[in-house]
Amino acid sequence: MKIKIIYTSLTGNTQETVEVLSDALTAQDIDVEIFDSEDGIEVEDFFTDADAYVLAIFTDGDGEVPDGIIDFYDDIADFDLTDIPVAVLGTGDTSYDDFCHAVDLLAEQCTASGARLAVPTLKIELAPDDAAITAIEQFGQQLTQQVAAE
Question: Would the pTM of this model clear 0.90, i.e. be above it?
Fold first, then answer.
């Protein structure tokens, strides 16, 4: 099984979350390919040759999709993701009113283009602590079980 992950990170929290997820998936003998959205991967290049796709994001400003992935996010609207299994997770800070709102926006953008959320979204407070690491590992396990069952 192969899973592709794309992420954007400003403080390193989302990148750390992706690393934890990647380690958990690799421990299940999953082939993982990771992309930093800042490297400019196109939607049509990302959504190919994998069994599932993970999008990881942080929330910027007042609940906005951050600049580092906004072009990718916008391009999803024009791409057919019908029945493609997608999982979305992200980091945020509960001191803001719109905690992890960009996670919701990204999930909505994917489903509006036809993607199927393979697992419920996951929201992490800042950098992953022990409880968050466990939740990320469970997220990865649920994703692989769901994809394998299809």
Answer: yes
Joined tokens for residue 147: 């994809």
Contact 56, 75 (CB under 8 A): no
Q: What is the tens place of the pLDDT at every residue in 66-112? A: 999 999 999 999 999 999 999 999 999 999 889 999 999 999 999 99
Calpha distance 57→70 (Å, rounded): 10
| Neighbouring-strand partners of residue 122 | 89
- Helix ranges, the chain (H): 13-26, 43-46, 67-76, 101-112, 130-149
Calpha distance 124→133 (Å, rounded): 9
Q: Which domains can be identified in the chain, with CATH numbers?
A: 2-149 (3.40.50.360)
Q: Kindly state the average pLDDT of the residues 102-124.
A: 97
| Cβ-count burial 84-116 (b if 16+ within 10 Å, e if not) | bbbbbbbbbeeeeebbbbbbbbbbebbeebebe
Task: Measure the CA–CA gap between 90 and 105, rounded to whole angstroms.
Answer: 11
d(CA 114, CA 85): 10
Q: Using CA atoms, how far apart are residues 123 and 92, in angstroms rounded to an integer?
A: 7
